Amino acid sequence: MTQLQTESPLTALFSAVVHTPFGGMGIRTQAGALVEMVYLPAHYAEKDATDPVAAKAVQQIRRYLADPGFRFKLPLAPVGSAFQQRVWQAIAAIPCGQVQTYGQVAKHIQSAPRAVGQACGANWYPLVIPCHRVTAAGGLGGFSHHDDVDGFHLEVKRWLLRHEGVHGY
Predict the structure, then answer these.
(1) Would you identify the CATH topology of the domain 82-163?
(2) Percentage of the chain surpassing pLDDT 90?
(3) Which residue numbers delimit the Methylated-DNA-[protein]-cysteine S-methyltransferase DNA binding domain (predicted)?
(4) What pLDDT is attached to residue 3?
C-alpha cells in the first residue's frame, strides 16, 4: 500500500495484513512489539507493514508458509495471566508436525483440559504460539474460541495441521 491510498476500514486496526492460503493474518504492533495476530477471512485487503516490527512479522509469516518448521522470533508484548503464559509456554514446546491433546498439555502443567482450552482460545499470538497443535482427545477440538465444524477458524486449524504434515483431521 502506498502512502496515497486510502486505508480500508477493515484493515485500519492492523499494522499489516498478509494474505495466506487460509485467508489472511492481521498484525498489530505498538511500541516496538507485536501486540496481536488475528486470523482473517480472505476478503480483508493486504496491507503493507507500517513499522519495522510489522514488517518482520510479515516476513516471518511468509517464511513459515514456505517452511512449516520455521521458528518465529518476534518481540512479543507481555499479555495474559500467569496461568495462560504457562499454557502458552507448554504449547510453544510442541514440535512442528506433532499434536498434543488438551489433556496431555493439562497433565504436563498440572491443570485441567478445559482450562488449557480456554487459554488456547485466548492466545494473542497464533502461529508464534501454535495452539493449532492442541487437539481434543477424540478429534480436532476447537480453535480460537470457535468450534463450528465447517467454520472459518476450524478450516484454518485443519490447513495449518496439514501444512505441518499432520493428517487425519
Answers:
(1) Arc Repressor Mutant, subunit A (1.10.10)
(2) 80
(3) 82-166
(4) 43
